[in-house]
Amino acid sequence: MSDQNKDRKDVKRDELWRSVDEYNAGGVTDETQYHEFAPGVKEEFDVDKELSGISRRKFLALMSASAAFMAAGCSDYRDKGELMPYNRKPDDITIGEANFYASTYMGCGHACGVLIKTREGRPIKVDGNPDHPVNAGKVCAKGQASVMDLYDPQRFSEPQTVNQGEYTPAKWQDVDGKVIAQLTLGGEGSAVFISHKVHSPTAIKLMGELQEKYKSVRFIYYDLFAAENRTNAWKKCYGEDSVPAVIKWDEADVILALEASLFGTDGNSIEQHRMIRDRRDVNNTKKFNRLYSAEANFTTTGANADYRIRIKPEHYYDFVLTLMNEVSKRGKGKGVIPESLSGKLSAFTVDAFSKKAQLSEKGRKSLNALIGDLVSNGSKSIVYAGEAVPEDVQVLVHLLNEVTGGSALYSDTVANVELHKYSTSKEIAGLVADMKAGKVSLLVNMDANPVYHFPKELGFEEALKKVKLVVSMALLPNETSYSSNFVLPLNHDFESWGDAKIRSNFTSTMQPVIAPLYNTRQKEAILLQWLSGKTDGYKDTNYLDYLKAAWKENYKGNNFNKFWAGSLHDGVSMITDAKVVAPKFTLKDVPTENPLKPGKTAVILAESYALGDGRHANNGWLQELPHTISKVTWDNYAAISEKTSKDLGAKTDSLIEVSLNGKKVTLPVLVQPGVADDTVIVELGYGRTKCPVVALEVGQDVSVFQKTMNEKVFTTATIAVAEGSYTLASTQDHYTYDKSIVNTDDAHLKRHIIQEGTLAQFIANPKFLKGEKPSSVSLYPNHEYPGVKWGMTIDLNKCTGCGNCSVACSIENNVPVVGKDQVIKGREMQWMRIDRYYSGTPEDPDASVQPMLCQHCDNAPCENVCPVAATQHSIDGLNQMVYNRCVGTRYCSNNCPYKVRRFNFFDFRDHFANGYYYEEPVNLANNPEVTVRPRGVMEKCTFCVHRIEEARSKALAEGRPLKGSDVKTACQEACPADAISFGDLNDKQSDFNLFHEHDLAYTVLEELNIKANVRYIARLQNTTAEEV
Amino acid sequence: MNIDYSKELPLIHGRLSLGEIEDLIAKPMSEKPNRKYYIALAVTLTLFLIGAISLGYTFYYGIGMWGNNQPVGWAFEIVNFVFWIGIGHAGTLISAILFLLRQKWRTAIARFAETMTIFAVMVAGIFPTIHTGRPWLDGYLLPYPSQNGLWVNFTSPLLWDVFAVSTYFTVSLVFWYIGLIPDFAVMRDRTTTKVKKFIYSLFSLGWRHSNRNWQHYEKSYVILAGFATPLVLSVHTIVSFDFAVSIMPGWHTTIFPPYFVGGAIFSGFAMVVTVLLFVRKVFDLENIITVDHLERMNKVILATGMMVGYAYATEFFIAWYSGVPFEQFVFINRIFGPYAWAYWIMVSCNVIFPQFFWFRKLRRSIPVMFIIVILVNVGMWFERFVIVVTSLHRDYLPSSWGYFKPTIFDIGLLVGSFGMFFTLVLLFVKAMPVVSIAEVKAVADGAQPTHHGGEH
Q: B278 CA to chain A: closest CA distance, Å?
């Protein structure tokens, strides 16, 4: 410091000093005191010296670097895949906001328009396209669950070479080359393409071009459930070129479903739900329709019918003729009935039929009422026969509609469109014969599964071995891909372009909502490639270009791009087709003999509502959707009546052997009240063998009984008890008919869980239900709900118990699949379930259905018992679950009188099929707005709280108060009958609230005074006036 | 019979001297365990291990390993909990209430009963902690100051349980330990090995058998007895609230608190008798734990058994009298429904078989009482099963009815709980005096000299 000593004189005036010492020292501030470190400590300081050589900064840097290295070294951050942030925000994606795209779902014969919800580019939810004229905003359970098929972990991700089920990756070019070579080689009928129904006019055009180029090509079209009997009968009656007319269900006052599941598997159930159930509006009782059902099976249509007549299949014929006779006796249909029949008719009287079919008193009454209604309502009545009803009876049904005048309900504005005819059973048999004779050298299976579907008797699987080249286009491994030479992986519908025409006056469009997840192509693009005759030059847009070109050809306007974009946006494009020609009944030679000869036991092969023809079998959400009536999941079974079971000495869960046409199948029994005696009902679509694990060996394949695919009913079976027993997984127990001292009969009525009445009762006294209202005095003040208060009303007049809501809820709320073993234990997770209750006798039961979900009680009994306060009441009336806080005592579930709480006994995604639903990319299907619950946590319906919050933020952003109508819950959106309404209970003047306060509205278990916020509108049976 | 009612019956038989009493009681602790002891320990440890393995599986995979399902959210785990808490009732009742009532005969059995209480509550305490879906978060059940302002829900009976059981355990433990201090001192004085001496010295807290020591001891013992007495009633009352506070028919019953307390004493006494029968035989304590003691216990079993039977009857009467159809159904379903077998096991074991104790001869017969107390133990387990499971399995909505079937893991945990309990009992009999030396000496003949030569 000595060198800093300066003479006093050097100090300038403005220099600062703080002490005399400093002044003396020269007035210069000691610089070191401003330094953080002692002088000499620098970055490169020597460690050996007194002070640490590492500066604090360096030390921290080294510390954090080593910590970071350690952390990085220990984690597998490298395996996280690519994380790609949006450098620039795409125009159409806002993080956190869903996009909706209109498209078409081709999962069955109806090609419904769908609206696909995508989040950050991945589809997570499917609902109906509201602009679609047929399904009008609703879509069935299969459609709802289809999003899970997209993410099925076992999807083919690239072409495969197959050797007896051994799949090894192949190249598109190689397979294409082989097929093209084979096509070019030609040979009369040597190339066969097998396909399900094709809805797309453009695909048909493409297929035509393919046939044009390669003369050897022939197409085989089939569907296991194609309503062929009905269609063929129609063609017989109304001419070969006619197609079954569109029925104006909404104008029908009287409907008779003959073995037809109008709310399930026959016809377009979505449209029928809407049009038929719309007429059950309690605010417009004048328009109530009356539904009759005559069936051997017990379907939701029977359960919701005002009158149900239980008949055996062998009596279909007599039944229809009895109606015809009785109706014509009362002066209907003069001159319509051909002479060949009219002579024989007089023998078919109500008395004769009642005797023959051993109708109960109730059945007879119903029959009389039906006849009366058909006579008095004539042109406002319609008779519809379902899939199982044989062609000859279908002809008579069409004739009956002519006799009653019901044919007036055939639409004169819209017609069904038939783009191609189905191949006849003869053609299919011919194909197999050709294959066996070695005449077929190329067989292309276009996303169909003929090995599984074709009648086993034909020996299609064996015949496949004679075909030189078998190529299967498939999404998932199936029985046919197993026996193929090559598999070409397909795009899911949500990855594909297309169009569909099912009715006149509009065409619907299909657009991809996500880029193909794998190295897959869509069917049409594969065909297009083959059409080009080259193996290269494939682009994802090839088929789009073709599609657009095809549309442009038909487009008459001058701004095609605008039209195209508009069509894609709407999902449908309205075009007026040629006028509908009224069908004219021309058949003279009507059947005069019963096609079903009485036998020992009848068998009906029914369609599974969830699985369809089995192609949806690998979807756990559908497998776990309880059967609409029996509530059985994960199985098909032999449903038999109580009397038959007693005669046989079998109970539910015993095994019986069904012998038919020389084939035997052992099936578990389910004693199903309401099924016709000596009749076995079994569903098809089960018993898949060469498929991924979800569908594998679920149930039994009963198609072995079939000789042709349209044959669904047999009367010559025998049944016998087999050794052993089996456990069916039902979500509702079978104790409902307990006649012992623990009398559970009609418990649901005695407990006022189901409240019902007749229409006449309601008209006479609208408040007839309210008489029994218990008083609800409380010591405590009520909760206060200053703003919105959420509530729900479920109209049991409209609900049919189809279960679409249940699937929609599971998809929306990331509800896991639990598997059969867990359903047996009673641990199913669906937040929304459909309860079904029987009353009356097991022979002729009435069934009532009731969707049951969290009732969001004001005085919720679950809330006060949770020790950790994990379930709370919100200010807008929701009963909320705080998953993070829940420790899983299950006390809340015990104390819930509705038992709607669901507990994660396991990590079900891990527990089910060895973690099948933990595999990539199933996680992409999860709704990001809803927490995926870990094991040990209670969960339940949230009233779609995430949708409420979304609507709330939207309202907030728009600066307006939140309204009840802003929110639609997932179940409400999915309900095809619009039975569910949701809204604000504090908005006293809203339609919703008026409905909630309706005279017919009731709360389940009202006497507990827990003040549930879900109300049910009591079902009104529309019985005839004489019965009141 | 010629009984002199003016004179108390001797509580200790065989005219044992004070020194002999001490020797007799302290003997097991000074001897090396024999083969039989090791075999017994091996058996109980095996059972314990079965429980531990079942628990391991449960922790790894989840509660789903058990048979619980949607309507039956609680089953074996809560049945076991209530069962063991009930077992844990006899101890404090004998040591505290009978002490306050100056029942001198309690001295021979009090220590053992108290110890059983401690162990039973330890076993019981396991079940609520493992029954949760996420046991690693059980800490949420404690009211701790959380930064998030999260607080427990004081309206939940399950939370009351946490307090009731932990309080009961703490007080019982302290009470038991205070009673042990003079005996630890005796053991300290008797023992020869260094390690034992150190341990017994540590736990005897410098006890010198001085007058001053005894004065303080007696005072604190009375105070603690007074403290423990209400807990005997409160803990099972609160356990019963788990059910009574709910709205489930079959659970929502005001009779539950007295009914549960009565049942707990019933089952606790039965368990004490079960184990004492072995202990007095194995350790030659027949003169100290006499047939008179056992007979008195059997009288209590008879009395409480009838109380329980009365409660069963009252429940039915009230179900009928209430006119509530749900309530009526639950009780009819109990007797005749799918779980009727459990109900009839319960009634026969708890109400019918104890009636044999009306007969003095049967009451004093060791084989008969052994069979009956075992049946009572079984019956009381089933009582909790009937209450918990049959009420839940068919409640309000017939659509959600179900059936509970236990899995091997349920049974493994039940077995394991017995394994744990008896392992602890076995360890106890070799480490501490099974009968209170000090107290028994005090009631021995001639221990309380009076001016009248022992006669009033």
A: 38
Instruction: Read off the pLDDT of residues A607-654 as tens digits, 9 standing for 90 and up.
Output: 999 998 888 999 999 999 999 999 999 999 999 998 899 999 888 889
Number of domains in chain B: 1
Domains of chain A: 2-34 (no CATH), 160-221+420-500+506-574 (3.40.50.740), 228-415 (3.40.228.10), 601-730 (2.40.40.20), 747-773+787-1021 (3.30.70.20)
Q: Is the pLDDT of residue B320 over 80?
A: yes
- Angstroms from A945 CA to nearest CA on chain B: 22
Chain A residue closest in CA terms to B131: A889
For residue B449, pLDDT over 80 is answered with no
Query: B59 — contact with chain A (CB < 8 Å)?
Result: no
Mutate to test the interface with B, among A780, A825, A914 (most CBs of B within 10 A): A825
Closest by Cα among A542, A518, A519, A541 to A530: A542
* Residues from chain A contacting residue B341 (CB–CB below 8 Å): none
* Interface touch B332/A861, C-beta < 8 Å: no
State the nearest Cα–Cα gap between B143 and chain A, in angstroms: 9
Contact A935 B62 (CB under 8 A): yes
Q: Which residue in A has a C-alpha nearest to residue B66's C-alpha?
A: A905
The answer to whether residue A170 neighbours chain B at the CB level (below 8 Å) is no
Mean pLDDT of B187-205: 89
- The lowest-confidence range among A85-89, A229-233, A731-735, B141-145 is A731-735
Amino acid of residue B278: F
Nearest CA in chain A to B129: A889
Q: Is residue B226, in this structure, part of any structural domain at all?
A: no
- Residue B269's alpha-carbon distances to A473, A911, B376, in angstroms, are 74, 44, 10
**DSSP letters along A925-985, please?**
GS-TTSPPP-TT-EE---SSHHHHHHHHHHHHHTTS---GGG---HHHHH-TT--EEEEET
Mutate which: A629, A815, A865, A908, vs B, most B CBs within 10 A: A865
For residue B4, is it within any domain? Answer: no
- Domain residue limits at B310: 18-166+237-443
B-contacting residues of A 906-925, CB under 8 Å? 906-907, 911
Cβ burial of A564 (10 Å; 0-12, 13-18, 19+) is: middle
The mean per-residue pLDDT over the stretch B42-51 comes to 95
User: How far apart (Å, rounded) are the C-alpha atoms in residues A890 and A836?
Assistant: 25
Judge whether residue A1 has pLDDT over 50. no
pLDDT in tens, A960-1005: 999 999 999 999 999 999 999 999 999 998 999 999 999 899 999 9
Angstrom distance (rounded) from CA A385 to CA A294: 9
A297-306: burial string, b at 16+ Cβ within 10 Å, e else: bbbbbbbbbb
Token look-up 């097929």 returns A179
**CA nearest A194: which of A548, A453, A402, A573?**
A453
pLDDT digits (tens, 9 = 90+) for A707-732: 888 889 999 899 999 988 999 998 88
- CA distance readout (Å), A525 to A512, A528, B12: 13, 5, 100
The whole-model pTM stands at: 0.87
Q: How much is the pLDDT for A790?
A: 94
A729: left (phi over 0), alpha (psi -120 to 50) or beta: beta
pLDDT of residue A13: 60
> Does residue B453 sit within a domain?
no
Structural tokens at position B182: 């003079």
Look at A736 and B158 and tell me if their CB atoms are within 8 Å. Answer: no
Interface of A with B in 105-144 (CB under 8 A): none
Mean pLDDT, chain A, whole residue set = 87
Domain membership flag for residue B197: no
Taking the Cβ of residue A872 and every Cβ of chain B, the question of whether any pair is shorter than 8 Å is answered with no
